[in-house]
Amino acid sequence: SYPGIYDDSAVFGSNFDFVVRKAISPVTFLSIWNEAREEIVRGYSLDNINTLFIAARKTGTTQPVLQSQISTVIRRADDSYKHKFVTVIDVVVPLVLTLTIPAVYDSGAVMQQVRTILLDEYGPASAWAKRGEAQILEKDIYALMVKHKVTALSARLGNLTIDSIGDGGVVLPEHYRYITAESLVINLVEAE
Q: Between β-strands 29-33 and 51-57, what pairing exists: parallel, antiparallel or unpaired?
């Protein structure tokens, strides 16, 4: 969301994520949102006027130190905002897939390949999980299988069906969302 000539001199378009993330990387999770987004999530409040809401976690750094670092970065970029820190909430996302693969393929190897791809892309250490309000989209899962050349799924009888993503609950900006080995269920159907 930044132009190619962005020089870090100010926050572009009131998006503080880039400048904070750049200053304190690597972060485990960072989500910064403004009063408009906060009021969509939790309703109107006069306390929200000109406030940035921040949920952050960084391995090896205490919350008070991390909050101080973030506040310093934001004040340097634009000192007109108040800051409110919100507790990060871990949300393990259930993901259920069904693979249909021709019987000539090693089903265990194919399942492990798909499992590894998805955990790398959507696991707790992934770039996807490190941002607030992350969503797993079906089209992205299909694109990952093509990108990683899962040949058993590209065979004539191969198929991937996404049975369910998530639990249908509300996604909040402070939700640190990711899949785990336990929340990822892969069913297998062998096609003849």
A: antiparallel
Question: For the packed helices 107-122 and 138-147, what is the interaxial angle rounded to 10 degrees?
Answer: 120
Question: Within 10 A of 147 (CB to CB), how many other CB atoms are there?
Answer: 11
| Per-residue model confidence (pLDDT) at position 4 | 52
Residue 56 has pLDDT above 50, yes or no: yes
Angle ∠(66,70,74) on CA atoms, nearest 5: 170
Average pLDDT over residues 50-71: 96
The pLDDT of residue 1 is above 50: no
Rounded CA-CA distance 183/179 in Å is: 6
**Mean pLDDT of the region 72-90:** 93
Q: How far is CA 79 from CA 22, 65, 85, 88, 182, in A?
A: 18, 19, 16, 24, 44
Helix (H) or strand (E) holding 83: strand 82-85
Pairwise CA distance, residues 162 & 137, whole Å: 10
